[in-house]
Design brief:
The complex is a heterodimer. By secondary structure, chain A is α/β, with parallel strands linked by helices. Helices cover 28% and strands 24% of the residues of chain A. In chain A, α2 crosses α3, α5 runs antiparallel to α18 and α12 packs parallel to α13. The radius of gyration of chain A is 31 Å and the shape is globular. Chain B has one domain: 3-Layer(aba) Sandwich (Rossmann fold). Chain B is 40% helix and 17% strand. The radius of gyration of chain B is 14 Å and the shape is globular. Classes of the chains: A alpha/beta, B alpha/beta. Chains A and B meet through α4, α5, α17 and α18 of A and α1, β2, α2 and α3 of B. The complex binds FE2/S2 (inorganic) cluster. The site of FE2/S2 (inorganic) cluster (FES) has 13 residues of chain B, from α3.
Chain lengths: 655, 139
């Protein structure tokens, strides 16, 4: 196809009033009519709709168009849609070009005249580029049918089980010694109040014993390379110093170990040993020794656990192991971290006894927790009044702007549990009650009838400075009741801070390994907030659960199943289309200087010693164009990103 | 008529282009002077692209890509950075004020920043005046 014979169709989308409300689409259409090689111009209210696509298809067939430009939204939204439409009408999809006159024009410019000028420039750029575009063939590669799931909380467990039940192999990698995640720490779940471990433990056991799941606990993903369908992953299996094959899980080692440290699982309100399983129902039920805490590792003697271990499972010689696995898809379900309220000094957390976080309360009220489920103060006595402060670190511009979505509901659950176990008065200090889920509003209603006191206002301060006898020895909660308009002082025995859910501390690092982006709040970014909430911008990498944003258990499970369905769909197809826009070396003109060889980040360029030329391996090339830009003789072309095409577009937008 | 600078934006499709899209979805208003060309990676940007832009009427060129460490092709942006230093030297020799070019790292979540960068750049170039009138060849 030579440029002279190019027949370009230009289609301008109104996008309802999204574009047409600012940009004068008729004027842009008239302008496009005058551009070289343009054979047809139309504008339509929704180009992406079926009738819109049909206009293009009809024109390709009847007017013999061989290039198509659509000026509409961002290519990240509809490039595929229009490429497909072209293909259906018999036109190679790479002969399509999109001009983004919505996200990068009508939505960001208020001045209609300037927006129209800009839209014309963008259309002109697309037209002048598309003329130089060449047909390309999509390439397909085989998919490795294994999946990696990172993070063994309820999201990871659910996703792993769905895929494993579908008959495919899953590697489930979990950082801590057991799967279960935060859900295992919870006592009851709202709004049904069923016990968290009762619904979680069976799933944990299934995940631990499923023939298609290879559980790798106490392990971390070190490195990921490759691309959709063929990822290579390095996993570090940390030394447990316990032989999994020999250990019977009897637990005697944990009773004999002399070292007591704060238990992470009990949110610091309970203790564990230096050799431990995080909780009784841990899966797998094999303890680990933390070398940094163990007397033997520090001082060279002790070995108490070893002495009592009958099967001889303790192995102080164990080393970290790097395991390499090959997978086709990856699901990130790495969960969330909990906001530390210490920096908010006015709440007295860490300074005042009996100001605790929600997660600490969760362990306190759990029948498997350190107090056996007894709600008690630091001194062991039972509180007679408890305040629950909502939105600590959430909906707060200084910390996290977003709503953590679960706090209102668990706060209600707490009132119920407190009422059930004690005689205490309960105060809920809230900004808004957000009870959006199925059965949530009903739960709120029920709780309102249980005699809980609701004060609409955010807690401003918690202090122990009493100004009356009634306040002596109490924690005084200051809150403005925004319904009554007065500042209240509420003396209580215990304050529970409903702390925000936040991205894991290592979320940035993990995102980098996965090659995915994060949104401004630090959670992983989904490909599309509404229409593609489980995929990411990296093909073959999916997200599930709170690592993508705070959510409750039902939403987490739903998203995990969705991520699994996406992975399964890919695997069962067996093949995946990969980048057609790779680099190409004109061997006739290659001088053999080898500059490109070392530049290629994917080692896809090799040197042919016999012919003294460099050659690109299409299967490895990802089309970044680094070599294209660097070639001193200018004989490497980046398919679909040739210098000719880019320069044509530059000339076009500046025309 | 007041001078409206023409600025060419060359954005990598993974981070900065997505950041520019985000500015749109969050309806951040910014100067309409930047015209964006999408490339796969900043590593693909040849110095000739920039020279061509000045030749064809640009008053400024903004190149933006992923933050260091985030390039989707591992190190394209480092290569862009090195080339950019050379480019600046070249422009200096040609008498082109280096305020007319800018290389920025803008992630997919930095819609706001994209808007800020475009506004700053537009103002800067506005002050420098039309490129052609200042000795450029693009009259
Ligand atoms: S992909 Fe964005 S700079 Fe390389």
């Amino acid at each position: 196809m030579t440029k002279n014979k190019a027949k370009v169709g230009v289609y301008i989308c109104h996008c309802g009033s999204n574009i047409a409300g600012v940009v004068d689409v008729k004027d842009v259409a008239a302008y496009a009519q005058g551009l070289p090689s343009v054979a047809a111009v139309k504008d339509y209210v929704y180009m992406c709709s079926d009738p819109g696509q049909n206009i293009i298809k009809e024109d390709i067939k009847h007017l013999g168009l061989n290039r198509v430009v659509v000026a509409c939204c961002s290519p990240s939204l509809h490039e595929l849609t229009f490429r497909r439409a072209c293909q259906e009408a018999g036109l190679n999809p790479y002969l399509f070009q999109q001009a983004n006159i919505r996200e990068q024009c009508s939505w960001v410019t208020e001045d209609a005249a300037l927006a129209t000028v800009k839209a014309k420039a963008l259309v002109s750029g697309a037209v002048s580029r598309v003329v130089h575009q060449e047909p390309l063939e999509k390439r397909e590669v085989e998919i490795n049918p294994n999946t990696l799931v990172i993070g063994g909380g309820i999201a990871g467990i659910q996703a792993a089980l769905e895929i494993a039940d579908g008959g495919y192999k899953v590697y489930l990698v979990e950082k801590t010694p057991s799967v279960g995640g935060h859900m295992a720490q919870l006592d009851k779940t709202f709004p049904t109040l069923d016990c968290s471990s009762c619904i979680l433990t069976p799933k944990m056991t299934q995940a631990g014993s499923h023939p298609n799941i290879e559980l790798m606990v106490y392990s971390e993903v070190e490195e990921i390379s490759g691309y959709v369908g063929n990822f290579k992953v390095k996993v570090r299996k940390k030394a447990k110093y316990v032989d999994e094959e020999k250990c019977t899980g009897c637990g005697i080692c944990q009773t004999k170990c002399p070292i007591r440290v704060d238990s992470e699982f009990d949110a610091g309100i309970g203790k564990r040993k230096a050799i431990y399983t995080p909780f009784a129902q841990a899966v797998p039920n094999v303890p680990v020794i933390v070398a940094e805490e163990c007397t033997y590792f520090i001082k060279g003697k002790c070995r108490a656990c070893e002495k009592f271990c009958e099967p001889g499972a303790i192995d102080f010689e164990q080393k970290d192991e790097i395991v390499e696995i090959d997978v086709g898809a990856i699901i990130a379900s790495t969960g969330y971290g909990v906001f530390d309220p210490t920096p908010m000094a006015h709440y007295g957390y860490g300074r005042l006894d009996n100001v605790i976080t929600s997660l600490e309360f969760e362990r306190l009220v759990s029948s498997a927790g350190p107090t056996g489920g007894k709600i008690q103060l630091k001194d062991g006595s039972t509180p007679t009044s408890i305040a629950i402060a909502h939105c600590i670190g959430s909906r707060d511009e200084k910390y996290h702007e977003y709503c953590s979505r679960v706090c209102c509901m668990y706060a209600l659950k707490y009132s119920h549990l407190i009422k059930e176990k004690t005689e205490a008065d309960v105060y809920q200090m809230y900004i808004d009650m957000r009870c959006f889920g199925k059965g949530y509003e009903e739960f709120y209603k029920r709780l309102s009838e249980e005699g809980v006191k609701f004060i609409r206002g955010k807690v401003g301060e918690v202090t122990d400075r009493a100004i009356s006898d009634e306040e002596k020895g109490k924690l005084i909660v200051l809150a403005e009741d925004s319904l009554l308009g007065n500042v209240m002082r509420v003396p209580v025995d215990m304050v529970i801070l409903c702390v925000a859910l936040e991205p894991q501390a290592d979320a940035e690092n993990t995102a980098r390994k996965l090659g995915i982006s994060r949104s401004a709040d630090g959670f992983y970014l989904e490909r599309h907030p509404k229409l593609d909430p489980v995929a990411t911008t990296t093909d073959g990498v999916f997200v599930a659960g709170c690592c993508q944003g705070p959510k409750d258990i039902p939403d987490t499970v739903a998203q995990a199943s969705a991520a699994a369905a996406r992975a399964l769909a890919m695997i069962s197809k067996g093949k995946v289309e990969v980048e057609a826009a790779t680099a190409h070396i004109d061997e006739e003109r290659c001088s053999g200087c080898r500059i490109c060889n070392d530049l290629c980040p994917f080692s896809s360029i090799t040197f042919d010693e016999e012919k003294k030329v460099s050659r690109v391996n299409d299967a490895l090339c990802k089309g970044c164009g680094v070599c294209v830009a660097a070639c001193p003789s200018g004989i490497i072309s980046g398919r679909h990103f040739t210098a000719e095409q880019i320069i044509a577009e530059i000339e076009g937008v500046l025309a | 008529m007041s001078f409206e600078p023409k600025i060419l934006g060359v954005l990598c499709k993974w981070c900065s282009y997505a950041g520019a899209d985000l500015a749109g979805t969050s309806r951040k208003k910014y100067a309409p002077n930047v015209r964006v060309v999408r490339v796969n990676c900043t590593g693909r940007v040849e110095p000739t692209f920039v020279l061509k832009a000045f030749e064809k009427g640009a008053d400024g060129v903004l190149i933006a890509g992923c933050h260091p460490g985030d390039c989707h092709y591992l190190e394209g942006n480092y290569k862009a950075l090195r080339r950019f230093q050379l480019l600046k030297k070249m422009l200096a020799q040609m008498g082109i004020d280096d305020g007319r070019v800018r290389l920025e790292w803008i992630s997919a979540s930095e819609g706001e920043r994209f808007a800020v960068v475009v506004n700053e750049m537009t103002e800067r170039v506005r002050k420098l005046g039309p490129f052609a009138k200042n000795g450029g060849s693009n009259g």
